[in-house]
Write a structure and sequence with these properties.
The model is unreliable at 1-27, 273-278 and 477-483 (pLDDT under 50). The two termini are 68 Å apart. A hairpin with a 5-residue loop joins strand 3 (160-174) and strand 4. The chain contains 27 helices and 23 strands. The longest helix has 43 residues, at 46-88. It is globular. It has 881 residues and is of the alpha+beta class.
Length: 881
């Protein structure tokens, strides 16, 4: 095609038909003129050709510059007119903006959590290449990594650039202003290399720091440096005291780096984890795991290749060390997946629920827009009669709805700002990436996008529906009483959607509420009322053997017992509902088994009065006494779960067990079972009691103990006196975590409480919006049918007949929504099965109760407009028409 022909035809393509409508005749004439000239192009003289090209370029300029300017002017006109119309009806505007603010604000707040926890990359260099390496049992249960296995992984793998082991524990940090308890991590030398961390001051670990004989050094976190040492850079090279031992501060980690979560200092290991056991070479230990492991994949190595190689390595270790590794398998996952764990299920569930709330809000506002558009029917008809196209009218109405949504988004952002703060307080303190939850640019972009989409969603249907109105019918004087059948059907459809979505939300909230009630009614196995707890971790040069620990805790108990209002004082290494150490044991007289097949149990170390302090009954045999000391034969207690698991049909009292230790004659050290203790929920209320073995603190002291204090009155009132009494024993030992046992129980159900609170709030909002939607549609229908109702009553219809008529019409969409909602709830609640306890995902009681509740609300929402209809005066209604 010749260039001039291409130019002329291109102009005909790029100028939209919509832009040509206002000057249609001129444009058609111009096209005819061009076609005539193009047909005889070769016969034209140069002046005519030049004129044609000039006119074509002029049209091109008009299409590119002048017509967009006209569009821009029209848009500003739409905005000005839309604002005027919204201010003209302030009641409608306020209700619509508030409704949208609720939906958008709730979505923004939940998206902030989802974004921070699930979508935002971890704040480490090459975070996508960092993986966690887990050891798991054949059943898929996660177990801690053993030191010897870790060293084999490090020596044999070819896929990791760096591989690091981590052992976490608490530590006493002493100083001139007193001692405090901090979280500490003992790591291998390449730990910081995995994360690409850099020091703020000083240095991080070097390979030689992992060798025996290296000087004791420590790297402290930026947060600890600021809080404890006021940001003094001179601390590098100086000594600090941890657990009574002096460490030189080698460096300060960069601001923001913290792994594992809440860690404030890092030590390089002498052998891998020197604090675990100083008398054995832990690098040779395979049957006892206490480490976690992280690694950095080599560039270009896919995750699947790392999985395959690690599976091959663990298979070789199982074959080489069958006695200890027979039940140890391997799992490699991204570090982000490892950190988030099962919380992703909860967050996606809440995000889905809050999207339902937004859809209900959109349906509600769409109904309001339909009612308002119907009231503007004559205005729209006049504009149409004056030449406004249907597209122009739709654009005007959509502009108004988008303005409403943007205003709702602005107020919703304010609600989200406060909502995020509330969410972070409701979430469990161990929730992954909790400190990263905030409003950022991505959340702001999400809010703007949601506002625009919702404006189009709830505005398009009403705008399209009203733009189809017949001009002649709309301009008739008696059209005021027309019911608008299609618009009524559309309003009813919105009500059906609102009711269905509301029922799904309510059923989900109801199932979680029943789960929460079931957890609250679980017998934890102890009495938490009027019990105060605190954590003690004595350390220092004098605490190197059992007698100093035994003496220290004995003195603390005596000091506390002397405080008025305290009845009983005991201590345990790990409080109930808290994860603690586990051990394996063998039973005397049973066939010998490989160590990895020994039965396992939670290990609990207690003082004699612990069971009395928490009102835990001894169901058989006896409890520990003061006579169960270092000079007496070693004894243990077991709980009912262990007795049932390992001594089914036998009396465990009098039987003996061994933890694998040997005496000087290389004979097993046996411990006699002297009693059976009632079951206690060890880790979570929703988890069945696990097997537990209790050892006597007077025979085998534990360094870190939680003291439990039963009081005769309010335990919180004695907190200050208890702290002072404990510190009087040794001012150099910190007193931590003073709280009531009721708080311990309450914190154990923080996640279920959070779930039911959020979903309950969303369900309540949905219920209110649905009721408002049903009421609004029924009320509007009554107002539109005033003339008809007047005629009916004039012809003899009674008030009950009118009431029944209106109620029947109002309840049809509600009942349809209930039926659809029940089907949807049955399908969707299966997704939350993992969050439920003591109730099934299709619990008929919950479904029936919530459906009945929504039905009652719908009846009330229909009743009040129907009752108003029965009070219509036939003469007044007919006179008005």
């Amino acid at each position: 095609m010749k260039p001039h022909r291409w130019l002329i035809q291109f102009i005909g393509v790029i100028v939209p038909r919509r832009l040509r409508a206002d000057w249609k005749q001129e444009w058609e004439a111009e096209l005819r003129y061009r076609e005539l000239l193009l047909a005889d192009w070769d016969k034209l003289n140069w002046k005519t050709k030049l004129d044609l090209v000039r006119r074509s370029l002029g049209a091109f300029w008009d299409a590119l510059v002048l017509q967009p300017q006209r569009l821009e002017d029209e848009m500003f006109q739409d905005l000005r007119f839309g604002l005027r119309m919204l201010f003209k009806k302030p009641g409608f505007t306020v209700i619509a903006i508030f409704t949208m603010a609720l939906g958008i604000g709730a979505n923004t707040a939940i998206f902030s959590v989802v974004n921070a926890v699930l979508l935002r990359p971890l704040p480490y260099r090459d975070a996508e290449r960092i993986v966690a390496i887990q050891e798991v049992s054949e059943e898929g249960k996660r177990i801690q990594v053993t030191p010897a296995n870790f060293l084999d992984w490090r020596a044999q793998n070819t896929v990791f650039q760096h591989l690091a082991a981590i052992f976490t524990r608490g530590s006493n940090l002493a100083g001139d202003d007193g001692a405090e308890r901090i979280n500490l991590a003992v790591t291998s030398a390449d730990f910081f290399d995995v994360f690409g961390a850099k020091p703020q001051h000083g240095r991080l670990f070097l390979p030689e720091d992992e060798q025996a004989g290296h000087p004791p050094i420590v790297v402290i976190s930026h947060a600890l440096w600021q809080r404890r040492y006021a940001g003094d850079a001179e601390i590098v090279g100086k000594s600090i005291t941890l657990d009574g031992r002096s460490y030189t501060v080698a460096g300060i980690a960069a601001a923001g780096f913290q792994y594992p979560d809440k860690t404030e200092a890092w030590l390089p290991p002498v052998r891998l984890a020197p604090a675990v056991n100083q008398t054995m070479d832990v690098t040779q230990v395979r049957g006892f795991g206490f480490l976690s492991a992280v690694a950095l994949l080599k560039p270009g190595v896919p995750l699947q290749q790392a999985k395959d190689e690690m599976e091959a390595i663990t298979a070789r270790l199982r074959e080489r060390y069958p006695e200890t590794n027979n039940n140890r398998f391997n799992r490699v996952v991204g570090l982000h997946t490892d950190l988030v764990g099962d919380t992703s299920t909860v967050l996606w569930l809440l995000l889905g629920a809050v999207c339902f709330v937004l859809l209900i809000a959109c349906a509600n506002v769409a109904n309001l827009m339909l009612v308002r558009a119907t009231a503007r029917q004559k205005e729209i008809a006049i504009r149409n009669a004056l030449g406004a196209t249907r597209l122009r009218i739709v654009r005007q109405l959509l502009t108004e709805s988008v303005m409403l949504a943007i205003a709702g988004g602005a107020f919703g952002l304010l609600l989200a700002w406060r909502g995020v703060d509330l969410l972070t307080r409701l979430l469990p303190q161990d929730f992954p990436r909790l400190k990263d939850i905030n409003l950022d640019l991505k959340v702001l972009g999400f809010t703007i996008l949601v506002s625009l989409i919702t404006g189009i969603v709830f505005g398009f249907a009403p705008a399209w529906q009203i733009s189809k109105a017949d001009v002649n019918e709309s301009l008739k004087e008696n059209s005021r009483g027309a019911t608008g059948g299609k618009r009524n059907r559309l309003r009813s459809l919105f009500v059906v959607a609102e009711v269905a979505l509301s029922l799904v939300l309510l059923v989900g909230a109801g199932l979680l509420f029943r789960t929460f009630l079931q957890l609250q009614s679980v017998n934890a196995g102890f009495n938490a009322q009027q019990v105060l707890t605190l954590r003690l971790s004595p350390s220092g040069p004098s605490f190197k053997a059992d007698p100093p620990f035994i003496a220290y805790y004995k003195q603390v108990e005596e000091r506390l017992q002397a405080i008025p209002g305290i009845e009983t004082v005991g201590a345990i290494n790990t409080l109930p509902l808290s994860k603690g150490p586990t051990l394996a044991f063998m039973i005397e007289g049973r066939p010998p088994l490989p160590p990895d097949q020994w039965p396992g149990a939670n290990y609990r170390n207690v003082t004699p009065d612990y069971f009395r302090a928490l009102s835990i009954p001894i169901v058989r045999g006896r409890a520990f006494g003061e006579h169960d000391n270092l000079a007496a034969p070693q004894v243990v207690l077991v709980n009912q779960a262990l007795a049932q698991q390992d001594f089914r049909g036998e009396d465990p009292v009098g039987k003996r067990v061994s933890f694998g230790g040997s005496d000087k004659n290389n004979q097993p050290i046996w411990l006699e079972i002297v009693g059976v203790v009632s079951n206690v929920r060890s880790i979570e209320l929703q988890e069945e009691p696990l097997p537990e073995i209790y050892t006597a603190s007077l025979q085998d002291a534990f360094s870190n103990m939680s003291v439990v204090i039963r009081t005769s009155g309010e335990p919180g009132a004695l907190a200050a006196a208890v702290r002072e009494a404990a510190q009087d024993v040794d001012r150099g030992q910190p007193v931590a975590d003073i709280r009531t046992m009721e708080n311990v129980v309450s914190e154990s159900v923080t996640q279920p409480r959070f779930n039911v609170t959020l979903l309950g709030v969303f369900g309540a909002i949905a219920l209110i919006l649905s009721a408002a939607g049903i009421y609004g549609v029924t009320s509007y229908t009554v107002s539109q049918r005033t003339h008809e109702i007047g005629i009916r009553m004039a012809l003899g219809a009674k008030a009950p007949d009118v009431l029944q008529l209106v109620m029947r019409q109002g309840m049809k969409p509600a009942l349809t929504g209930l039926a659809i909602g029940l089907a949807a709830a049955i399908a969707l609640t299966r997704l939350m099965k993992s969050l439920l306890f003591g109730v099934t995902a299709t619990d008929p009681v919950t479904f029936a109760a919530l459906a009945l509740l929504l039905l009652c609300v719908a009846l009330l929402a229909c009743y009040f407009p129907a009752r108003r209809a029965t009070k219509v005066d036939p003469m007044v209604a007919l006179r008005c028409e």
